[in-house]
Amino acid sequence: MEIVFFSGIPFFPKHTTGGAQQSLGKVVRYLGQLGHRVRILSSARANCHEPFTLAEGVEVLPILPVQHFPEICNTTPYNLTHLILDTQEILATADVLYILDAVLPFHFLYEKIPTVISFRNFIYSDTLGNGLNFRRDHLLLNSNYMRDCAVDTMSIFCPQITERMTVIPNGFDLDLLQPVDPQPLARRFGIPDDVIPLLYPHRPDPRKGIYNVLDVLALYRQRHGKQGDRLRLLIPKWHDGASENDSDTYDLILPYAQERGIDDLLIFHPWLESKDLPAYFSLGRVTFCLGTFPETFGNVHMESLACGTPPILTRVAAYRSSLPESIVAKVDPGDADAAVDALERLLQDPPDPDIGRQYIREHYNQQQMVEDHDTVLTQTRCLKPLPERAAPPWHAADRLAVPAWCYRGTQGYYNDYLDGYVQNEVLQQLLQCSNLDSQHSLTVEQAESASGLSRQQLDSLVRAGLLVRRSRADFV
Questions:
Q1: Which of 192, 260, 275, 367 is the most buried (most CB within 10 A)?
Q2: Which among 379, 414, 448 is the end of a domain?
Q3: What is the pLDDT of residues 396-452, one digit of tens each?
């Protein structure tokens, strides 16, 4: 088959810029090995604008004259004209099209081509604006969290959407990702033998948690004095900072650390190539994933665990459900004290790395991931678009539930999209008189009776994204 991938994210010959390209790279290499002809249409960059061969049977065409993701259409109209023309030419012989993050808004281009849409984020404007238009052949999601977000968002006006969804979690090669000798990499980065390396392997988006991590380091040093002096936080320098709207984060990190008296604990190093990841994760004693960015999967915590280094996660987005709390340490967002407690435990009593590796082997197998992609891509056919409907009127038997993007924790009611805990008197009135959480829903009648809230007040919570209404019509 000839399979075309459309990506607003650039592809490079020797390095990747994030988890989406990394996972997709594994898929396209496997498809090429099977004998498929794979072509990847991606955005052109100043340092990458000529076609190149990524692997056997896989050609990358970085020719699209568009802005970098996530707003690829934020460009001139004539650039979009050439995007359309270039894409038309490539699709003329395609058997199936895969659109990464739903960023191709010109639906007429693929009306007659079997099409797989993939959501690997559910936050950026291009994905949301185009993704909620999904009515076609197959919707591919990389986590149960992502699936639940899509269902809670779209099923009220497109109730049949679940019939065309498939979840294929990211997969990991445990032959590659395993504990190795980190000393050559440590010498390369100038890491002394007597320090405690801690890892922050994330791009320069402050929502990835850098300031939270710095607060944790400062608090740990306050508690432990000289022991805290041995900590070293390793921070990679983004290899293509000009492409990031938040690239000036680096300029803010050092002053923030200086204010807290921990600037001597930071080590900046070059962005890592994939081949260095096993040694890098093996070098660390703990990996921090303390951000509030609503990850739909997040590869870092899996890669770290696979290499024997325990991560500390915030209970945000996919981190809430990707790994059980019996395997990894999790803390509520913003709880620096709990994060320091977790760091202390992990440094004093590291967990058995085989437990985490076995869980990844059973649930996030790379071979299963690439095979499942091949199955979806080769079996997808053009289907009649799904019908929409107007939202059914409220009914006493409708159910009110905590949306996938919300979490009722010990510190409050957290909303991934609001990047914090919610202060809402109407919501608090409902929570105080019910057991509403991610496992327990209420009928509208039960909510009204228990809380005394009016239907209008309940609707205000739905509109604010704090509850989701599941129509009685969909489960009667």
A1: 260
A2: 379
A3: 999 999 999 999 988 899 999 999 999 999 999 999 999 999 899 999 999 999 999
